[in-house]
Each structure stands twice: as C-alpha cells, then as structure tokens.
Design brief:
The protein is α+β, with helices and mostly antiparallel strands. It contains eleven helices and 13 strands. It has three domains: about 80 residues, Rossmann fold (3-Layer(aba) Sandwich), CATH 3.40.50; about 140 residues, 2-Layer Sandwich (D-amino Acid Aminotransferase, Chain A, domain 1), CATH 3.30.470; about 60 residues, 2-Layer Sandwich (Dna Ligase, domain 1), CATH 3.30.1490. The strands form three sheets. Strands 8, 9, 10, 11, 12 and 13 form a six-stranded antiparallel beta sheet that branches. The protein has a four-stranded antiparallel beta sheet with strand order 4-7-5-6, covered by helices on one side. β1, α1 and β2 form a beta-alpha-beta unit. About 50% of the residues are buried.
C-alpha cells in the first residue's frame, strides 16, 4: 500500500478464452475506474505465459481478475495467484471451478435445496437418446457446454428433431454438455457482494432482443434492456435475492457473484447458474444493479478491491 492509502492493482485481462474481447473491454473499464480513484494500475494481458513474469515484476497489492471463461474464471488463475501469494478479487480456486462447471454447480445447488431445472449430462461417446431426453425434460430444451460462459455454444432446441444439432454445437466448445429443461418466464439476475456478510443487489430483469440472452444480447448495446427492479411480485423478488445469496454460500464464493434465475408463470424461481466473474462493461448486469443501489462503477471496483484484502 502506498503512503497515501492508494494501492498498486494489477488488472488481468484478455486471456485465451472465447471471451477474450469481452475481457479486454472489462479490463479497460475497471482500469480506468481504479485510476480515477488514484490507484496505480498495471494492465496485464494473460494471453501467454509471459504474464506471470509481468505479475511478479509488478508486485501488486491486489490483482483484479477480469478474465472471463476458461483459464481465468475456472480456478486456474486463482490457483496461480495462491502460489504467488497475491491477493485477488473474487472467489477462490474451488468456488471458481465449481461455479464454472454447470453440472457440478447443480449438484451443490441441489444439496443446498435450491431449485434448478432438471437436466441430462452428456460426455463424448455417450449416446444422445432423443426419446429418453424428451421424456425426461420435455420437448423444448436448452443445450449448453458445461464449462463456457457468455452463452457461447448455447442453443434452444424447440423440438426433439433439433437436439442432435444443438448437442453437436455444444460439443464444439466443451467435452461436457448439459441438456436442460426449458423454463419459460422472466429472466432475473441478482448480484451478490461480500465475503462473510453478504448483500444482494436489486433484482434486474433482462429483456433480450433475441429469443434468449445470447452473446450479442449481452455485449452489443441496444440488444437487451435491463429493468430494475424486475417486474415480479415483491415476495418473488425477495426469493430471487435469497436464492442468489444461498447459491453464493453453497459454492463458497467470495467478493462478488451474480446468479441468473428464471421466474415461471407460477412465480417459482429457478436457479440457472452462478457467475463468479461477471462482466464489467457498459452493458453488463452487475454494474447496472450496483448503480441502482447507489453505487457508481468506481465505487463498486473499490469495494471489490477492499473485499479482496479483507482478512489478509
């Protein structure tokens, strides 16, 4: 820590995942926000192994991980930073790995009693029995890679005849594929901040221009609308927030997370997944929800940095 209380913050960005461009955008905006607060910011692109030496040379007080998807959000970088003895923003190795793996996280959600849609898990070599999948999940399903973010490789199969192509598309991105029961309803996301003492941010309803909240809807301005608070009953909004906090706890998250849910016609809240490194761009959900709670973007970044140093 510098004499004036400011910090040296290394912002890890870019990387090698399919979300590299989004990560660069997130990293640039986080860097700018922290710099406006007087912190010394060192931007580091984790595209190749040279970034490790850059990290060591920077000797930061804290690392702000802005890497989305594989080799960033999945516990790998967190493990490296643990070995280097560096404080970092966000969840640790285990929580990051669990949240990234949609199959493993569903096991933990079920154990914690959190409602999540039924699913079928497929691995390479498994026979995709369309009739059995349809009998278990219904005719309309969502097919997704188990270990990707930003809706990469996600397809809605409207009928059983579309399943094979959707599964093949998901396998292009991962060797673990999830076929999930489709739940129609209102898409509500809830951000959670904190380590031991947790707060749920206001509910945010996502209204995408496309059929679902896909990659373009997430990152192209004008391709989705964010409505805060979500247009659900007050008691349903409270349930969305409760589930988001309990999911954060169940996975052992720290610092921040964002839970994605669907509220169906009967006002049942279904937990889809928890993200440990949510996007931090101008169109991203967590910063919008924080702003609605009275926390502007630089303040949000500062809070996350301080949470990373809590207890160290």
């Amino acid at each position: 820590m510098n004499a004036d209380g400011t910090l040296t913050v290394a912002v890890l960005m870019g990387g090698r995942s399919g979300e590299r461009e989004v990560s660069l955008n997130t990293g640039a905006q986080v860097s700018q926000a922290l710099a406006t607060l007087g912190h010394e910011v060192v931007r580091i692109d984790a595209r190749d192994e040279a970034f490790i030496g850059q990290l060591v040379d920077a000797a930061p007080d804290v690392v702000f991980i802005c890497l989305h998807g594989r080799l960033g959000e999945d516990g790998t970088v967190q493990g490296l930073l643990e070995l280097l003895g560096m404080a970092y923003v966000g969840s640790g190795v285990l929580a990051s790995a669990l949240a990234m793996d949609k199959v493993m996280s569903k096991h933990f959600f079920a154990y914690a009693g959190l409602p999540t849609p039924d699913y079928v898990h497929l691995r390479p070599g498994d026979t995709a029995d369309t009739a059995a999948i349809t009998a278990a999940l219904g005719e309309k399903t969502v097919v997704k890679p188990a270990n990707e973010g930003s809706a990469l490789g996600v397809t809605i199969a409207h009928e059983p005849s579309e399943l094979d192509a959707a599964i093949a598309e998901a396998f292009r991105f991962d060797d673990s594929v999830l076929v999930e029961r489709f739940v129609a309803g209102v898409e509500v996301t809830v951000g959670v901040l904190g380590n031991d003492e947790l707060i749920a941010l206001p509910t945010l309803e996502i209204v995408p221009e496309h059929e679902f909240y896909d990659y373009e809807s997430k990152y192209v301005p004008g391709m989705s609308r964010h409505i805060i608070p979500a247009r659900v009953k007050p008691e349903v909004a409270e349930e969305c927030q409760r589930i988001a906090v309990e999911a954060h706890r169940a996975l052992g998250c720290r610092g921040m997370s964002r839970a994605d849910t669907i509220v169906d016609a009967e006002d049942t809240v279904w937990l889809l997944e928890t993200n440990t490194i949510p996007g931090m761009t101008t169109t991203s959900l967590l910063p919008d929800a924080a702003r609605a709670a009275g926390m502007e973007f630089p303040e949000l970044c500062e809070r996350l940095v301080r949470l990373a140093l809590e207890g160290r």
